[in-house]
Amino acid sequence: MQIGFSFNVSRCSGCMACVVACQDENDLHGDGLNFRHVTRLEKGQFPAVSMSFLSLACQHCGDAPCMMVCPTGAIYKRDKDGIVDVHQEICVGCHSCALACPFGAPRYLENGKMSKCHFCVARVEDGREPACVRVCPTKALGFGSMDSLSRQKAEKASMFLLEPLMKVSGP
Amino acid sequence: MNSGLNFEGPDSKLPGEETGIEIRHTICSICSPRSHCGIDAYVKDGVVIKVEGTKENPNNAGTLCSKGAASRQYIYHEDRIRTPLIRKGDKGSGQFEPISWDEALDTITTRLLKIKDETGPEGVVFYAGYSKWMRPFLKRLAHSFGSPNYCTESSVCSAAAGLAAGLNYGTMGGPETGKSKCLLVWSSNPFYSNTSAVRKLLDARERGLKIIEVGPLITPLTAHTDFHLRIRPGTSGALALGMAHVIIEEGLYDHDFVENWTLGFEEYRDYVRKYTPSITEGITGVSGDLITKAARLYATTKPAALMTGPNATVHHTNGIQNHRALTALIGLTGNFDREGGNHVVPPAYLYVPNGVTTRQGPFMQSRPWEEMPPRVGQDQYPVWCKMVSEGQAIHLPFQIRSKKPYPIRALLAFGMNYRMWPGSDFMKDSLNMLDFFVDVDLFMTDTARLADLVLPACTSFERSEIKFYTQKYVIWTRPVIPPLEESRPDTDIIFDLGTKLAPDDDLMQKGYEASVDWILEPAHLKVEALKEYPAGYRLKDVALPPYQKYEKNGFSTPSGKMEFTSGVLKEAGFDPLPKYEEPRLSPFSTPDVAKDYPLILTTGARLPMFIHSRTFRLSWTRGLRPDPMVDINPKDADDRGIKQGDSVTLSTKRGAIQVKANLTEIIAPGVVNMYHAYSEADVNLLIEPDYVDPISCYPGFKALLCEVKKTQSA
Predict the structure, then answer these.
(1) Which of A3, B131, B446, B473 is most enclosed, with most CB atoms within 10 A?
(2) Picking from A44-58, B157-171, B448-462, B512-526, which range would have the lowest pLDDT averaged per residue?
(3) Which of B1-10, B212-221, B432-441, B453-462 is predicted least confidently?
């Protein structure tokens, strides 16, 4: 099974509560140290302008490049749920993972060791949501197994297609 | 808090016996009373180690915004004031030494009673800033002491919008978004100002709600709208008159409501005749075609509701009349006090309407106005004092200086920020002219530094308070941690002062919980009973008032009708029609000023991680936007050789500040947008202290003239 985040770009308002909730959960008090990052994109020119946001953390890749390049085997992927995590006691802080990661997920602590989003694994195992998902005021962020997320998406798309047809026979 | 990561392993924050972590319920009170989200505090050994939203709380349903999520840095910040402090150096020197609570409270009561004895109680001003939770008790203390001068930050917040709508209708109702088919959002950005409400707004949109947005900025809402009318700042009134023109000319107004329930329609119709779509386009910058389409959509989709921001439309030198013009559209289209329109529900407690009745008003007005001298601003802003139950704080520095009609000698302030005043240096200097200034705050702020005596308050995590929600929910909070060091709840300070300042006030003597019980009596709620529900209590048998109450009671205006021509304004010598006037500083009203200052400056729009200055000092929120930045359109920036992140000088005729340039299309060419309250780049230094609306004394924060230039490095 592979667990993952879902992100509804049309609902994200760029409030960055997810960034702070993650910092609070993980005691990231260091200057600018965060596991989740929100980027804003503007497109077009006045008066036709649109603005979007993307909230990004470790993607817990199926075929994680950070794990491939880690010389000490500190980075590992859990069989149970596909969460990519790091054994800090083995990490030597070589930054290979940072070079390999296309999403800029790895961060480095004051002790030089790599740390990053661990999917709030203890919370998830305890039946709770990751801190970033819990805090999201617009419900733009979600999580679940990749299968269930796809199923939810399919159902939502089907509803969208069915809705106008239903109206015809309505009162 | 130290800077490094204290990494105890990912499983260190689960509640339970083995971890020793307990979840205790409280509320956040960093932002406005419309939010105040329920918080689950994870507490270990008496320390909050994590927060998250309370799921059972129907307002936030487990979620928080970035400010609330940063609560831990707020509670435990190193700038928290730890003990009462008395000034040692010169006034404003910021040099203090600790004193005991007994000494501090004795000093205050002695000084204030002496002033009362010498020149009367009106010489003492009682001021409530943010948050608003202590207001009922402070106002009662002021009036029981004998002073009419209870002032608050509502002198720039939402009171003027209430005043303007009150002139039209006698009252106002919020949008009933859940039942509405069309929402006209006028200069409001709930995504950043009332985050807990947007989930439902987005859900309603997904169900087919039409949304029209009016405002000078592109916001996260814009992507969810049918139309965005991007006005030039300050022209809301003209746009509203232009929409009324279309609605009346095309016969789309509610004939029945207008004929039976309004005053002055003929004069109003004659007046809006000149606001044709093309004339209105010339003023507002919104295309006539779009104005027509938006007017038709709002007028023909039933029911339709108007959502305005608390103050963006009244932070103008023509603010009251602008807001009157736009709220007049509600009655014109027959959406006033209708289901799915703007439903009038009186507030239960602290600005939250939910159908509950309390005695907050009578509790606060412990002495009638007639038995006290005039309030600050009453001679110059009589309409304000007629419609709003407090003094006008923006006028305070003028009265401190002029001593007219009587001298102001002392100020007892809770959560005051002098940078709220236009011409904030003018207010700062005025504070230094007082005989005695006491400031109660969480942090050693720029304002606290000016005080003679500073008292440490505590956060919502460290106190008990009553909080109502619109979703028929109430919570009496219990402290989740004891107050930090010697800090105390604002209410403890107020009631302690009350023992000597208001000895004849029976409720003040009985104390805080007895006073809350007295306020709650009509709601059949008691503090002791609410303590049984630490996460909150779902109110039973509470019904919202019916719709169209005016059919039975009329309108509480001089004529008993909705007034297109205001009787109150006429009596006070103002134009009774909702007349549009240009901002006092604009490219059209002051072309000579615009030669040197060609850009329109709009200030104070919300950012998601800040509410005024309250979370500036937290690294989590400040880290999301570290620098004071002026939003400028890439075209204007290019004309001035300015690139993203450049150091620039933002200047007006009055002054200049140094900020970074943020090139963005969210702002139109010709307009720049600056967030307020930065100590190092205070935009209110650029605004004249008397740049205010003549009816409300609200500052014209949202439209004036400026220039932006690249700062030459020395």
Answers:
(1) B131
(2) A44-58
(3) B1-10
Q: How many CB pairs under 8 A join A and B?
A: 148
Which of B607, B624, B629, B664 should we substitute to test contact with A (largest number of A Cβ atoms within 10 Å)?
B624
Torsions phi, psi for B47 (to 5 deg): -125, 135
Domains annotated on chain A, with CATH: 1-57+124-161 (3.30.70.20), 61-116 (3.30.70.20)
| Residue B12 predicted with pLDDT over 80 | no
Q: Please say whether the structural domain B591-710 has been given the CATH code 1.10.3720.10.
A: no
* pLDDT at res. A167: 64
C-alpha count within 13 angstroms, C-beta hemisphere, residue B460:
29
Contact B608 A49 (CB under 8 A): no
Q: Which of B13, B214, B625 to mutate to test the interface with A (most CBs of A within 10 A)?
A: B13
Residue of B nearest to A87 (CA): B9
Mean pLDDT to the nearest integer, B427-450: 98
pLDDT band at A29, cuts 50/70/90? confident
Is B654 a residue whose pLDDT tops 50? Answer: yes
Q: What is the ipTM of this complex?
A: 0.95
Would you list the domain boundaries of chain B? 85-158+358-459+485-524, 173-343, 591-710
User: With an 8 Å Cβ cutoff, are B51 and A118 in contact?
Assistant: no
- CATH T-level assignment (fold) for domain B85-158+358-459+485-524: Rossmann fold (3.40.50)
**Of the candidates B509, B550, B190, which has an alpha carbon nearest to the alpha carbon of residue B337?**
B550
A-chain residues near B205 (CB < 8 A): none
Nearest to A29 among B2, B198, B668 (CB): B2
The one-character DSSP state at B712 is P
Mean pLDDT within B34-63: 96
d(CA B212, CA B596): 35
Range B173-191 average pLDDT: 96
Give me the phi and psi of B85, to 5 degrees please: -130, 140
Q: Which of B63, B198, B205, B611 to mutate to test the interface with A (most CBs of A within 10 A)?
A: B63
Rounded CA separation B231/B212 (Å) = 13
Of all residues in chain A, the one with the smallest CA distance to B39 is: A135
pLDDT of residue B6: 43
Minimal Cα–Cα distance from B202 to chain A, Å? 7
B65 and A17: CB-CB below 8 Å?
A: yes
Cα gap B351→B428, rounded to integer Å? 29
Mark yes or no for CB contact B66/A29 under 8 Å. Answer: no
- Please name which of B555, B397, B594, B197 lies closest in space to residue A138, comparing C-alpha atoms: B197
